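Human: Here is a favour to ask of a fellow structure person. Comparing notes only helps if you start from a blank page. Give me a protein, with the fold worked out from its sequence. Please set it down just below, with no commentary around it:

Assistant:
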Amino acid sequence: MGDVWTWIISFLILITLVGFIVYQLICLADLEFDYINPYDSASRINFVVLPEFFLQGFLCFFYLVTGHWFMALLGVPYLYYNFQLYSKRQHLVDVTEIFNLLDCEKKKRLFKLAYMILTLFLTIFCFFINNLVSLPFTRPDQIEILLAFKNEFPNFKCDFKKLPCSKQMTKSWTNKGAMSFDGVVFDSETGVVTELNLGGACLSGTLSANSSLFRFHHLRYLDLLTTTLTPSHSSSNLANSQT
């Protein structure tokens, strides 16, 4: 989940950076077509230059501390270019030279825009890849046991006024994938069911000795609050013989 938030935050930062660059290009285009004067154009561009530099530097640092080395290295040329401009005092637009350097200023920002869009697409790609990899792995036999459990212990109508937290969880269970199994936790490596959080699921049924519930051999946590399970005669005898 932490990686998902990393990509979301970096996506928002990149969108902001793209917005800064597009804004500067609009100011230059307005100047080219005489919609604004050189002073207004230069002052508007200079107003967002330092925030753009700072935000891009922060993005590189953010990738570094979150362990995304490739993305951090990808941002280094852009960061170095900004640093060079700042160290040579060439980062701000000169109002007296803006007309003469109009094409050059536009090309610099178009290069930055292409660079940011490339990084943005990589971020989106990494976000989706991360989501696909993080999907829980499930074993077919565990899906079969869960569906058998669903049929064995159907939902009954709860009094939602007395049980406000009740929810018919197993109603969503299908064989379409792990995400449909509400209240079930799968082991990410082996694909076995390790937790059944069915508190408030409003289940009912007869608990027999060969119940599907006993087929979850790797179960570490079980919550069956508000569940009505009636032990069968055979399961009662089995319990008595074991005690």
Summary: The chain has two domains: 2-133, 140-242.
